[in-house]
Amino acid sequence: MILNTLLQSSVAADTVTQVATQAAQTGGLSFWSLMVKGGPIMIPLGLLSVLAVYIFVERYMAIRKASKYDTNFMNRIREYIHEGKIETALNLCRQNDTPIARMIEKGIERIGRPLNDVNTAIENVGNLEIAKLEKNLPLLATVSGGAPMIGFLGTVVGMIDAFYKMSAAGNNLNIGLLSGGIYTAMVTTVGGLIVGIMAYFCYNILVARIEKLVFNMEANSMVFMDLLNEPAK
After folding, report:
1. What count of other Cβ atoms lies within 10 Å of the Cβ of residue 120?
2. pLDDT of 161-176, one tens digit each?
3. Dihedral of CA 154/157/161/162: which sign?
4. Where are the domains of the chain?
5. Are 227 and 73 in contact (CB under 8 A)?
6. Predicted model pTM
7. Residue 140 in contact with residue 57, Cβ under 8 Å?
């Protein structure tokens, strides 16, 4: 029995050596070869990676556009309101077409009403703008958490396949026979982690930019409310 074990070990070692030699001669496996080795599980992982990239680019551009802000905007609003040029102030807000401008526009439309009503109107518009900015972010978060789980599913399937082949082979165990299942197990895990990590970083980048914009929105709404409390000149 010991002799048989040594012989099997020798055969396995020779097989590994042959595989390593062939890989060295062919320059190793390419990225796409590894993806193919991952099996069908790589298809949903590939689709999730494309979805994550699309959401990130689309949201990043939208948030970048919304973050554009004229530093002189509130000063001009203050001047127009003090001069009684309400319509001019509204036109300025419409020309800027940013979340901050739309909040201030709603506040200007409520001038003359109780301050609590004005503040509530501004807050409601602000909440709507934040909801627009966060569009598809939950889906991106789902990708960041779901991709590694799908990759792990591929790992389990690959290992089941590998152990099944081991059982079917019996005493004629061949390392090459097991390579398909092992490749699937390893590649899908790596693929799932890559997609998940990428989506995780993309999500947090977008959240950080949204939080920065929300802070500016709140700051400008406070400036506007202070403006309404200023005594008329």
Report:
1. 13
2. 777 777 776 666 666 6
3. positive
4. 30-63+136-218, 69-134+220-229
5. no
6. 0.77
7. no
Q: Nearest to residue 158, comparing CAs of 73, 57, 39, 75?
A: 39
pLDDT digits (tens, 9 = 90+) for 106-151: 999 998 888 899 999 999 999 999 999 999 999 999 999 999 999 9
SS3 per residue for the chain: CHHHHHHHHHHHHHHHHHHHHHHHHHCCCCHHHHHHHCCCCHHHHHHHHHHHHHHHHHHHHHHHHHHCCCCCHHHHHHHHHHCCCHHHHHHHHHHHCCHHHHHHHHHHHCECECHHHHHHHHHHHHHHHHHHHCCCHHHHHHHHHHHHHHHHHHHHHHHHHHHHHHHHHCCCCCHHHHHHHHHHHHHHHHHHHHHHHHHHHHHHHHHHHHHHHHHHHHHHHHHHHHHHHCCCC
